[in-house]
Amino acid sequence: MKKSLILMLLFFAVLGSTIAQDATPADTTYWRKGFLGTASFTQVSLTNWAAGGQNSISLGGYMTTFANYAKDRNSWENYLELGYGLIKQGDADFQKTNDKINIVSKFGRKMSQAKDGRLYFSSLIDFRTQFAPGFSAPGDEEYISKFMAPGYALVATGVDIKVNPSFSVNFAPVTGKFTFVNDDRLANAGAFGVEGAVFDTDGVTVLTPGKKARAELGSFLKVNYKKEVVSNVNVESRLEMFSNYLNNPQNIDVNWENIIILKVNEWLSTSFITQLIYDDDIKIAQFDEAGVQTGAGPRVQFKQLFGIGLTVKMGDKLKK
């Protein structure tokens, strides 16, 4: 995990330096590009503290960068989002609090030649995975996820409605969703919705290995809102929904992210991030009060991050 955090911070530095050198005024190029990165650190140290508690250290990093092209009736939008966080409490090992890689590329062709046209034919590619292995609890030896286990790829074709510069709706009635589990143990267990292995009667010997990929055909809807709602307060909300035509289309996959960044000054900011996920194919283990697993089933997943720290912003005004 420490290596992953170091690599991510190096990426911040290199990418930020590149954008700063290459940025050109918006009126002399068809490209708009920018970078926003935040880093936070929290420490609690207790000595003979009568009220009790534990020493703790937390580290977090988050960045977004974009490169958007627009000329005549064509548009091409590219977006990268990375997030990584760690926490250490007491004598326990470091544990992940955030781990995200998201790459999006969308091409659009305006249906009308009108300058203020809002309707586009669009094709979209969306890829997601994570940096490092994830564990249920500190000290666990077996990971429950890792890089490309899972990995998700979405290929969608449809229409994009740009209601205004801050709000857009993308609907793709022809969408392929691909889930990758590039790990033998997780694939054999049928993790993240792939087809699991066939075992012998002993429950250990694998007769047929589990599938490492799963393909779905369905429709995709993405609603995106991004705006500086008041001075120095930026809000972004992304709601994504996918329905599988061939298997329980009524069970809609949901991924809803909200990002609020409050700028304190040129270098300091407060960020609040939430993410809600529901995927009927992801089974979450359930336990009784004694800690014994009683089953597994789909559940709403929710994550909340709050941080105060250093912020670096470069390039044109950030938008998608």
Automatic annotation (TrEMBL):
Can you name this protein?
Answer: DUF3078 domain-containing protein
- Where does the signal sequence lie? 1-22
Q: Which Pfam families match?
A: DUF3078
Which keywords belong to this entry?
Answer: Signal
Q: Which organism is it from?
A: Imperialibacter roseus
Keyword Signal assigned: yes
Q: Which InterPro entries match?
A: DUF3078
What's the domain of life for this entry?
Bacteria
